[in-house]
Every structure is written in C-alpha cells, then in structure tokens.
Write a structure and sequence with these properties.
By secondary structure, this protein is α+β, with helices and mostly antiparallel strands. It contains 4 helices and 4 strands. The radius of gyration is 25 Å and the shape is elongated.
Length: 134
C-alpha cells in the first residue's frame, strides 16, 4: 500500500497547486476572518470564505494555463503597486527640496526645485511650456 504522501503527490499531478496569488488569497481571507470575528461582520466573513473557496479552487484546478495567466496578472499588478508606492516614498523624502507637478497638456509628472520663484517649465515629453511657482 502506498504511503499517503505518495497518493497525494499522484493526485496533485496536473493540478495548479499553490502560487503567489493563492497565498495572497489565503492570507487575505484569514485577515478578513479575523477582522470579521472581532466586529461581528457577517459580510466580511462571507467575503473571506468566498476568497478561501476561490483559493482552493485555484489550487486544485487542472486548467493550469488559465491559473498561470491569473497569477501573471496578479504579479504585474503587485509590481505596479510597488512601483507607485516606491515613487510616492521618494517624492515624500524630497518634498522639502523639490516640487512635483504635472504638465497641463499631457499629464507627464515633472520635478522642479523649490524656492526659485516663478519659473518657466518645459515638459520633456510634449514640449509644452508653462509658468509655475516653485
């Protein structure tokens, strides 16, 4: 008779298994369950159980291509969010020496030094010139 581990290994062959998105969904569902239990939030608990069910669906799914595409979209969004947070962190650290503004034409972000009075700024993206106070 085969060991339980070997049977489980054979059963999981051809299934998606746990990936980054699955770990996030499980963690998010546990956090929502904890919050829901403290504030007696039925809706939060319901959402948490829904996330948990979806995460197990993803783990046992045989449609690996679709699950990998979902995971890739999740990873891309996570990296986009990390980039935005890092950008905001840099802007916050330089808030005393530089002012951040957007081009009125193309909405490109620009950085200008503070304390220079009224200056003419040229957008490096579209070439629009405008006057602003630094």
């Amino acid at each position: 008779m085969k060991k339980l581990r070997e049977k489980l290994y054979e059963w999981m062959q051809g299934r998606n298994g746990v990936d980054e998105m699955g770990l996030f969904l499980i963690g998010a569902s546990l956090v929502l369950l904890l919050i829901g239990s403290f504030i007696n939030g039925f809706l939060l608990s319901l959402i948490a159980f829904g996330l948990l069910i979806y995460s197990y669906f993803r783990v046992f799914s045989r449609n690996i291509g679709a699950r990998q595409a979902e995971n890739n979209r999740y990873l891309a969004e996570r990296e986009h969010l990390r980039f935005k947070l890092q950008s905001k962190k840099v802007q916050f650290s330089m808030r005393k020496t530089h002012k951040y503004l957007k081009c009125p034409k193309c909405r490109q972000k620009m950085r200008v030094p503070r304390g220079k009075g009224k200056i003419e700024v040229t957008c490096p993206h579209c070439g629009e010139k405008f006057i602003t106070k630094s």
